[in-house]
Amino acid sequence: MIRTFTYTALLILIITSFSCSYKWTTITDTKGNNYRVREYKDFDKQKQYNEKSFFKYQYRQENYSKYHGLIQSDTANEYSYIQFDTVRIYLLRDTKNYIDVFKSGLISGQLIYCKLDSLCRPRGQMGIRNAETGELIKLHIGDWYGHTITIAYFDEPKHLKISPQKRRFKFWVSTFAGTGHDVFFLELTNNKVSKYIDINEFVKDAHVTFIKQAWIII
Question: Where are the domains of the chain?
Answer without folding.
Answer: 2-58, 71-217
